[in-house]
UniProtKB/TrEMBL annotation:
Keywords: DNA-binding, Transcription, Transcription regulation. It holds the Pfam family TetR_C_41. It comes from Allokutzneria oryzae. The lineage of its organism: Bacteria, Bacillati, Actinomycetota, Actinomycetes, Pseudonocardiales. The keyword GTP-binding does not apply. Residues 33-52 bind DNA. Transmembrane segments: none annotated. This is TetR/AcrR family transcriptional regulator. Residues 10-70 form the HTH tetR-type domain. PANTHER family: HTH-TYPE TRANSCRIPTIONAL REGULATOR BETI, HTH-TYPE TRANSCRIPTIONAL REGULATOR RUTR.
Amino acid sequence: MARTKQQQREATTAALHTTARRLFTEHGYNNVGLDTIAQAAGVTKGALYHHFTSKAALFRAVLATIQHEVGERVHLAAEAHPDPWTQLVEGCRAFLTASAEPDTQRIMLIDGPAVLGWHEWRALDERSSARHLTEALRTLVDNGTIPPQPVEPVARLLSGAMNEAALWLAQSDNTEADRDATMAALIRMLNSLR
C-alpha cells in the first residue's frame, strides 16, 4: 500500500530528526553539516530544506524534543509521590539523572545555549523542566513548607546549580558516586529552604 504524502512527510521529518539528534550528540552542532545529516538520513539536501529552513531550525526542533522529554521525566518522577516536598526532591533527582545522558548533556546543556542564544534556550527550558521546578516551589510556598518568598529567583538559582552539576557530572570518571554526592549536596541545599 502506497504511503500518503502526509505519511512521507512525517517519515522524512522523523528520519531527519533522529539522524540529527544522533549526529549532534556524537559530534556537536558545529561539527555536523547539513549534507552529512541529509546523507545519513537517506534524503536529499532539498528535502531537508523543505522540512527545516536551516541547520539551526533542525537543531531547535531536536533540542525542543529533548527538553520536552526531560520535562516529562521530571514530571513523572515527581507525580509518583503524594508529598510535595518529595515531589521536588525526586523531580530534581530525575533531572540530574536525565542530564547524565549524552544527548541531553551535549545538545541541551552545552550546544543549546551556544547555538540558540541564552534567551531562546531559556524560553525553551521554561516550557519544560524549569516550569516544573517553579510549580513545585510555588506549591511548597503555598502550603507553608517553605517560608513565603519570591519563587522565581529561587527556581533560577536551583536550576543553575543543577545545570552546572549536570555539566560537571558529564566529565566525571565516577559518575554514580559523584551523582550520589551531588544529590546529597542538593538535598542539603533544598533543606535549607525549609
